[in-house]
Amino acid sequence: MSEPPPPAALAEIRDEFLELDEPVRLQLLLEFSNELPDVPARYAGHPELTERVVECQSPVYIVVDVDDAGLVHMHATAPREAPTTRGFASILVQGISGLTVDEVLGIPDDFPRTIGLTRAVSPLRISGMTGMLLRAKRQVREKSGR
Fold it and tell me: Which of 58, 81, 91, 114 holds its CA 20 to 30 A away from the CA of 34?
């Protein structure tokens, strides 16, 4: 039995990567790294309110909110000196924010392996993105009572 496809926002991002030749995919990842939104003021400067993604060598912190309408909002911080990791965080923040709880929980765990970067970046970096995704899904489960 195969896993369900990712939600439309993540599928669109994945397809955008897969349409490019491998060397150009890294450039797109760099563009994503520059688009990582700032965390809301309530989290800025308060890493104790976020979760460190230990799978990442760089200090990456994430936090997920589930609003009253059941929509998920993911926030992440990653250093500018770590553009690959920052790009992965940005992909997830942009692809997850605005989804329903069920849509987030339905994201295939191996999504990071499907965007066509497994030969362009180290397995450790793909592992870091997978860690971000799994932690985000766990936080969604906890905060939605699932």
Answer: 114
pLDDT tens digits along 6-59: 999 999 999 999 999 988 999 999 999 999 999 999 999 888 999 999 999 899
- In the chain, the N- to C-terminal Cα span, in Å, equals 23
Whole-angstrom Cα Rg for the chain: 14
Do strands 61-66 and 51-52 pair parallel, antiparallel, or not at all (unpaired)? antiparallel
Distance in angstroms (rounded) separating the CA atoms of residues 136 and 84: 19
Instruction: Look at the alpha carbons of 129, 70, 52, 54 in this order and tell me if their dihedral is positive or negative.
Output: negative
Q: How far is CA 61 from the centre of its chain?
A: 11
The alpha carbon of residue 119 and the mean position of all alpha carbons in its chain are separated, in whole angstroms, by 19
User: 130 near 122, Cβ under 8 Å?
Assistant: no
